[in-house]
Structures are given as structure tokens and as C-alpha cells.
Amino acid sequence: MATEDERSRGRMNDSDYDVIQRNTPYLREQLIGKDIVDIMFAKHIINRDQVVEVDKQMKKSRPEGIRVLLGFLMDSGGVNAMEPFIECLNDAGFKHVADKLKRDRQVTADAKYVD
């Protein structure tokens, strides 16, 4: 039987997905994989197999590892994965990145009300 955590997994909600997608180049430039991967694993955002895959890609190149990590976050981190991801960024010392995502998230939310 699936746990509550397993049932809540899946694609990130559309507005948060868009924020990550728009910021992918910035995130690939700013993030250092190992710092964030371990914290995301500890917070159950990614699973062990995903950690192994990200680590494998990191050995090829850091930006490629971050790309794979973001893919896991966006496609299987869960509908509400953005908040825990932002917490992970803060915990890993990427407050400036977390702040940018929060701002962009707010802009996206505000834009929905204008439409």
C-alpha cells in the first residue's frame, strides 16, 4: 500500500514548475549540487535512486547534475515541492537563490490575478 508521501509525489504544480523552468539557467549557475542534494534527500524531496543518478551526472559536470536534480524536483518532487525546496536552499546556504525564487513565485502569483 502506498504511503501518504508516495501518493503526494508527482509533478510540481504548474505555477511553481514555471518558476523553476524560467530560473533553470540561473539555478544551474548558482547551485553546488552536493550541498543541496543531501538536504533534499534528508527532506524526502528526492529518493535514494535519484541521489545516485544526480551524483553520477555531477561527475560529468555540475550544471548537468543540477539539470537532472531540477528535473526530479519538477517531475516527481510532489505538487507542493517548492516550499521544501526553498527551505533546502536556505539550509544549504543559498539564501539569495531562495529569495529570488520566492520573488519570482510571487510575481507569477500576482500575474494570475491580473489575467
TrEMBL record:
GO BP terms: namely: regulation of apoptotic process
CDD domains, A to Z: CARD
Highest taxon of the lineage: Eukaryota
**SUPFAM superfamilies attached to this UniProt entry:** DEATH domain
Q: Which InterPro entries match?
A: CARD (IPR001315), DEATH-like_dom_sf (IPR011029)
Sequence ranges assigned to domain CARD in this UniProt record? 12-104
Pfam families from the entry?
CARD
User: Entry's Gene3D superfamilies?
Assistant: Death Domain, Fas (1.10.533.10)
Task: Give the protein's recorded name.
Answer: CARD domain-containing protein
